[in-house]
Amino acid sequence: MINAHIQSEHYKTLLTNGRHEIISDEPAAVGGSDLGMAPTELLLSSLGACTAITLRLYADRKGWPLTDVRVELSLESSKVDGQTVTGISRNIQLEGSLDEDQRNSLIEIANKCPIHRVLTGQIHIHTQEVIV
Question: Are strands 66-80 and 21-24 parallel, antiparallel or unpaired?
Fold first, then answer.
């Protein structure tokens, strides 16, 4: 479970899972203090971390000589027929003495990381107010 807590400081938000804390904020250009990554950057960070971890686990399991993985992500949204359409670009750099089949397999596996599956599947968010 993740808890997000914001008080009166624009727009600094403390995120915690009970063991770790992250600060999210907005850039100064939109009224924040730029004390941490913006929410969109945190979303992309989740996909980037999941991708890298999944590739590392897969290569290790196969005994492949993957020495480094770098994942670069960007997000763009636009309106199409009144609907917001969001696209994520993910560029993956693989280093190591990998053959073409191994590289192709790793790119295919990237599309199977758990966060990729969440983002490309149906998402339902149920929101309710909790009164204390």
Answer: unpaired
Q: Within the chain, which residues score under 70 in pLDDT?
A: none
Q: Report the alpha-carbon distance of residue 129 to residue 92 in Å, rounded.
A: 40
**Hey, which residues does 15 pair with through a beta bridge?**
4, 22
Contact 95, 68 (CB under 8 A): yes
CA dihedral 60, 20, 12, 7 (to 10 degrees): 150
**The pLDDT of residue 23:** 97
Instruction: Give the residues across from 74 on adjacent strands.
Output: 89
Distance CA 56, CA 106 (A): 9
